[in-house]
Amino acid sequence: MKSRSLMSVALFLTTTLSLSAFAADTSLTIAFSGCDASLTNPSDLRLRLFDATAAGTMVFEETQAAVAIDPSGCFSVRVGNVAALSTAMFTGNPSLFIAFALDVTPDTELGNGRVPITANGYAFRARIADNAQTLPPGAVISADQLGPALTISNPNAAGNGMSVAGGNAGIDTTGAFLGVLGHATGVNGRGVAGLAEGATGVNYGVLGQSSSTTSGAAGVYGLGATTGNTFGVIGESPSSGGGRGVWGKATATSGDAIGVYGESASFVGYGVLGIVTSGSSNAGVKAVSTAPAGNGLIAEANNGTNAFAIWGKSTSGFAGYFDGKVQVNGNMAARVVQITGGADLSEKFEVRRGETEIEPGMVVAIDPTNPGKLEVSAKAYDRRVVGILSGAGGVAPGMLMGQAGTLADGDHAVALSGRVYVWADASNGPISAGDLLTTSSHPGHAMKVKDHGRAQGAILGKAMTGLSKGRGLVLVLVTLQ
């Protein structure tokens, strides 16, 4: 047998089908490329199809003259250009093999042996199946080449390249680079569209899963164009019953698990951007935590003195809105602070009760037996007076100061400045708006100043409402003197 130098042989599984009659249908061709170092340019090649990898029965044969051979001994032809391929060849023969040789020595096969053309056989058989839109059960399409194993094209602008339905997985593929590549050129095209129509159960239109432990691996990866208002991933939900356009879920109970992760390297880019175009209670981005010690939203800025973990901006409304308590562990700067939920400046103190229960509106004074603490005042013109317990009459503290774990802390807010209601006693004389108030002998009560000499250092503030008799609440502007 003639000595041969063997090189790789590649079979491109491309089938061109015509609607003409099957008999002598010359539009059925197989694009085939082969290589053998012994070939010279040009060469007359004998092309054959067999039903076995060796020996077997030959089911097709043709000679193609003057085939162009490149310097490496490689060529490309379309099997079936000279003699007609027939779909009948593949009926009962799902696995055929192609061989090539010089026309003058047809039995001396070149290359590295016969190449299976199983995929093309199934494509031909589909034309004579009862349903021309299906493949026989167990059909396999395979190829070992740089290009795609299967290409499906539909030139109709409203058509689909491929529609796959499965009881479990519609498409289950593997690939060293891309398992599934969807390419759409239409104005409103979709490269890959997944539709789950099950009425019950946890269904997914598209499920992406990555088993890699390497940082950056992704189950689903979306990449937008480098220019224009493009998006790598768009999630949309028309449901009004709890629908989610994009739902990210991290089920790991430890480690750096992230449901949705957004990253941007652009100076004006956004890792995650949420936009609301209608409604009064919607949110561009909503963060909710139901864990006992969880966080609805965590934002960090760890680079630069002008970096902001959260940056809110509004030209007409509010840049930020908090409904509930807000804790800041650090410095806070503001040009103007407007307080709308209270009217006094208070500090936290521990207050020792006297003969009566402690309640908002009571006058308190320094407790000489407990440094840093207060007691309910029960002495007229008491120069140890400090302020008034805030919260009486429905007027809450506007600002409350204190330092936990020190003497500058306590359970009671004491108004040191601002407007606050105080319990007053008119037995020392009726109180009118504008009168100076001081402590009285009735525990926790204020009274009108009559002895201005004794009142020096014991003045609480100035009455803003009156009390003609008895005891009651009087609005006072706290100005300790």
SSE arrangement, N to C: EEEEEEEHEEEEEEEEEHEE
Oligomer: single chain
CATH topology of the domain at 344-478, by name, is Virus Head Decoration Protein, Chain: A
CATH class of the domain at 344-478: Mainly Beta
Strand content: 15-25%
State the separation between the terminal residues, measured CA to CA. 121 Å
Low-confidence stretches: 1-26, 119-133
Q: Tally the helices: what do you get?
A: 2
User: Level of helix content?
Assistant: under 10%
Would you identify the CATH architecture of the domain at 344-478?
Beta Barrel
CATH superfamily membership of the domain at 344-478:
Head decoration protein D
CA-atom Rg in angstroms: 43 Å
- Total E-strand runs: 18
The average pLDDT score comes to: 78
Class by alpha and beta content: mainly beta
General form:
rod-shaped
Largest sheet: 11 strands, mixed
What is the secondary structure topology, with strand pairs?
Layout: E1 10-15, E2 30-35, E3 43-50, E4 58-67, E5 74-79, E6 97-102, E7 115-116, H1 118-126, E8 344-349, E9 351-352, E10 363-366, E11 374-376, E12 385-389, E13 399-401, E14 412-425, E15 436-439, E16 446-448, H2 452-455, E17 459-463, E18 471-478
Parallel strand pairs: 8-13, 9-11
Antiparallel strand pairs: 1-2, 2-5, 3-4, 3-6, 6-7, 8-14, 10-11, 10-12, 12-14, 14-18, 15-16, 15-17, 17-18
